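Hi, here's the filled form for the chain we discussed.

Project: internal
Contact: R.S.
Residues: 119
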Amino acid sequence: MALHARKEAYIQQPAVPQNPVRVPAKKKNLITKGEKVLYLSFLAAFVLCAVLVLQNQSVIQASTQEIQTIEHSIDEKVKQNTDLSVQVSELSTYERIWAKAKEQGLKLNEQNVKVVPGQ
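And the returned structure, exactly as it came back:
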């Protein structure tokens, strides 16, 4: 009898519905807000560094062009100075000076000539 009562108790239990109401699960974010802030700050720092590097490169390039322009003008001045030195040496020859003196009517007076010691 006890066996029979167990079977009846087992059979008489109300059935639990097999389809429970499902609550839609939240999608889990793979990246948290803190990580997003970190990523954005790293990205901003990277972009800032890139802009600073480009700005420095442009300053360096401008300085290099200015240096080249100055060096070119220095080379021109050196060339002009060299040409003028050659002209001075050509114009200060003894023969030319003597010819100019004769044109002006000067005569060589041996008794008025003073010898100046060379340097």
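Let me know if anything looks off before we file it.
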